[in-house]
Write a structure and sequence with these properties.
Largest sheet: 7 strands, mixed
Order of helices and strands: HHEHEHHEHEHEHEEHHHEEHEEH
CATH class of the largest domain: Alpha Beta
Helix content: 25-40%
CATH superfamily of the largest domain: Type I PLP-dependent aspartate aminotransferase-like (Major domain)
Radius of gyration: 20 Å
Structural class: alpha/beta
Length: 344
């Protein structure tokens, strides 16, 4: 597809927020020390401290897969296992990288709503101390989930407590953490550090940044010697200021909240416009910036895709995913819904 029309495929498809682009241009003036020993990185870390407190360790990387893979590496050995939802990004969208680079085993759990529960993961809680069995060490959750749902504070705390009771850790893939925070009406710390999350992959790319993610060790002990892990993992940016400058602006003046709030609202608007179309069935609660729906035919899906790019989710039942972004406009929603009605 060659058009640059705003579609509903992914919040990765959006551009860069103008204020974040300006921050990168400002950081482009003159010279500064490389590899993170610069004023931009210092100021970006200060912003994270404002949100999470100072008792954390922060490491910037380029992409979300690296944040997940390296973050998980810090708390595992090759004989360990990581329990995750069947739909988790680490399970289906990272090309086996977590297992290849870390050597551990992923143990997936059927999760129609994208969420793990203590009951659902108990099937994998066995074989401890048995040398023939991979040893479960981490529970990994995604917030907001791959199904567009959002864990409550109590749900996260329950999983964290269970993990710690079993000498395990809780990892959170926060690629869309800002959307979750807006949905919950909370700051980041209240549903992460305060309830026992140990390692956080903090995303910015899907919410208006050009690139850049942060690995945050909310349990600082797990970040010991991580500087070497990041270097060996090929994620130590020489010109780190261009990641840091983005995060500094992103976390200033509530820009992260404005962007996520807008994309969430656009998803609610789209859901409200299609829910009364009898041929369309919304399959998940719309709690962040994604809508999952079953359309009546492949023909309709293909005709819509010709004009607005989006992704199939489950071709066997014509289930699709529509994602809204910080730059989605109301007119995009109205025009898309009119096209749906016209095709029907």
């Amino acid at each position: 597809m060659t058009t640059n029309k705003r579609g509903f495929a992914s919040d990765n498809n959006s551009g860069v927020h103008p204020e974040i682009m300006k921050a990168m241009l400002d950081a482009n003036i003159g010279h500064t020390v490389g590899y993170g020993d610069d004023i931009y990185t210092e100021r970006a870390k200060t912003k994270f401290y404002e949100h999470f407190g100072t008792d954390i360790d922060i490491y910037f990387v380029f992409i979300g897969t690296a944040a997940n893979v390296l973050g998980l590496h810090a708390a595992t050995r090759s004989w360990n296992a990581v329990i995750c939802a069947e739909t988790a990004h680490i399970n289906v969208d990272e090309c086996g990288a977590p297992e290849k680079f870390n050597g551990f085993k992923l143990l997936s759990v059927d999760s129609p709503k994208g969420k793990l529960t203590v009951e659902s993961i108990k099937q994998h809680m066995h074989g401890f101390g048995f040398e023939h069995h991979s040893q479960p060490k981490i529970i990994s959750i995604t917030q907001a989930t791959e199904m567009g749902t959002v864990y409550t504070v109590d749900e996260i705390k329950t999983l964290a407590d269970f993990a710690h009771e079993n000498d395990m850790y809780l990892h959170m893939d926060g690629a869309r953490i800002a959307n979750a925070a807006v949905s919950l009406g909370l700051g980041f710390k209240e549903f992460t550090k305060d309830v026992g999350v140990d390692i956080l992959s903090f995303g910015g790319t899907k919410n208006g940044m050009m690139y850049g993610e942060a690995i945050i060790f909310l349990n600082k002990e797990l970040g010991k010697d991580f500087m070497y892990v990041r270097k060996q993992g090929m994620q130590l940016a020489s010109k780190m200021r261009f990641i840091s400058a983005q995060f500094e602006r992103y976390l200033s003046d509530n820009l992260w909240h404005q962007n996520a709030n807008h994309s969430n609202k656009m998803a609610q608007l789209l859901a409200s416009k299609v829910k009364d179309i009898p041929q369309i069935k919304i399959t998940q609660k719309v709690e962040a910036n994604g809508i999952f729906a079953i359309l009546p035919s492949r023909e309709l899906i293909e005709e819509l895709m010709d004009e607005y790019f989006f992704y199939d989710w489950d071709e066997s039942k014509n289930e699709i995913r529509w994602m809204c972004s910080f730059d989605t406009l109301e007119e995009d929603i109205f025009n898309f819904v009119e096209l749906i009605k016209k095709k029907l």
